[in-house]
Amino acid sequence: MIKQIIKLIRVKQWIKNAFVLAPLLFSLNFMNMQADIKALLAFLAFSFTASVVYVMNDILDRKKDALHPKKKNRPIASGAISVKQALFIVAGLLIADAVCLYYLPVKTALTILIYVLINILYSFKLKHIVLVDVFIIAIGFILRVYAGAYAISVPVSSYIFMTTLFVSLFLGFTKRKMELQHSGATTRKVLKNYSDNMVTQYIVISVALTIMCYALYTLEPSTIERFGTNRLIYSVIFVIYGMFRYLYILDKYKDVEDPTENVLKDKGLISICLLYVLYILVIFTHTI
Is residue 165's pLDDT more than 70? Predict the structure, then answer.
């Protein structure tokens, strides 16, 4: 049952909520214990909220999922967890969510509420509209960043906003590309409006704009002043490699519709992420 609950609330998908922690890293507040605790609470609050959305969607789509070759194995669709049990799990997640939000600023709670409302619209209508579906996914990532920023009371740079937007579009379009390769085994109606060539072009544009905006962020006067050095520009190498590595993983595991599990296991991608964080720590410790 525990394994089924973990599968139901999509714990593996919580990696997406790492975006909540981005403001903590880039504001250099990670040495502040109070900021660390608030950022962690924001991460957990967003994760619990996202899990509620996942569970509710599974309840609503249980009959359709039961006809899907892969989704039929989901806990609710397969009958491993009943609708009544799922609703109890939702209640538990909401209570845990409320406890986390109690210790966070109101703006963080409002940001998460906006995320929920957008996901409701996405589930019932927006996911069927070409391009809008991917932009809604991108907005979800942007809201994660703002939730983390509000939690520790720091502003979000314009370039960080743009970088988040473009890297989110990159992630959204790469997901659509993987789904297109499995169009015979998916129930996502919007895919008929996409083509492999079109999505590939969107991915290339998103990669280029992500790298450009991040590079501009590292050269922004306020960023150089905050870090006390212009050496953050060299971290662009990690960003480029990370995005290229992600594309490599998608190409290597073409038979997988959702690459999240493979991404979490890829030593190359994990290593470059750790090296990126380590590089920022080195810059920080040599400038304080």
Answer: yes
